[in-house]
Amino acid sequence: MKKLILRKNLSEESPHGDYGFPFFLSHEILSEYEHASFEVHWHPDLEFTVVLEGAMEYQANDTVYILTEGCGMFVNANVLHTAKSYEGQDCSYLVITFNPVLVFGHENSTIENAYVLPVIQSQNCPSLYLSQEVPPQRRMMQLIREINRAYTENGLYRELQIKGRLCELWTLLFRELQGVLAEKDSAGSKDILYLKQALNYIHSHYSERLTLEGLAASCNISKSGYCRFFKKTMRQTPFEYLLKYRIEKSIPLLLSGEYNVTEISEKVGFSGASYYSENFRKYMNCSPTEYRKMHASS
User: What pTM was estimated for this model as a whole?
Assistant: First the structure.
């Protein structure tokens, strides 16, 4: 099973390309991830997705989209995003991720100041749904497919071909975003800052006894305010998220064979083995022992 490598603050650890050419393309299949979903995360790079087949429920910050075949998505720098299966369907999709320096060339250039920073620094455009029904957006997705061809064929001038299409892609995106860029920044961005703080705290302290008072204090807000923004942005309560995260962190310990169920439950913050097993079954559809046996040979 695939798994994203994340730091405690939810930023993705895997590099997207290298210093010489900071660009990465991948052909993903959602079912190759545990539970046909990838974890909520962010990165300073820009990301475009095009769905090739199937469908998925995609969330960028607190907005949820249903992406079906032929649709796409732009996700801005530093935006939290995650996806999961939609109505039991698998999903095959292309993803390109790149550092904006490929578009603007060098720091403080006219292109950076006029066309890139206004997008990256805006709170109003964390994401954009791309539709085949909108001609500029249809062209954007065509460009992503052309980039895919140039990348996979690995022929002469590959980097130049990719950079040229990225610049055209950015030009089209910038035009599509003119309306939202002219608006005053949204107040909802504060919830996203709180969410990053909240998830970072949970990921750093999940093995400890956590209370709502302590969780709210980590963001310096009230308990009701904490529950409100968490439920709004994550579509689950903080303790539902915490339970699932503890289960996920227990799996490597379970598969290592070094610890019994009681020891594992204590290491990931559960009050006892029975409560751990009850929640493990609810989330994984089997007991910890059954899961260990099923994966013993792999």
Answer: 0.78
pLDDT tens-place string over residues 87-141: 999 999 999 999 999 999 988 899 999 999 999 988 889 999 999 999 999 999 9
SS (H, E, C) 207-222: CCCCCHHHHHHHHCCC
Q: Is 253 exposed, middle or buried (0-12, 13-18, 19+ CB in 10 A)?
A: middle
Q: Tokens for 58?
A: 């995609």
Give the architecture (CATH level 2) of 23-182.
Sandwich (2.60)
Q: What are φ and ψ of residue 20, in 5° steps?
A: -70, -35
Can you read off the two tokens belonging to residue 47?
Answer: 């990301």
pLDDT value at residue 148:
97
Q: Are 39 and 230 in contact (CB under 8 A)?
A: no
Domain 249-297, architecture per CATH:
Orthogonal Bundle (1.10)
The partner residues of 93 in beta bridges, in order of sequence, read: 28, 51
**Nearest CA to 50 among 163, 170, 130, 119?**
130
Between residues 171 and 37, the one the model is more confident about: 171
Provide DSSP, 165-214: HHHHHHHHHHHHTHHHHTSPPPTTHHHHHHHHHHHHHHHHHTTS---HHH
The residues facing 65 across adjacent strands are 58
Structural tokens at position 157: 């001038």
With a cut of 60, say whether residue 298 has pLDDT above it.
no
The residue extents of the domains of the chain are 23-182, 185-235, 249-297
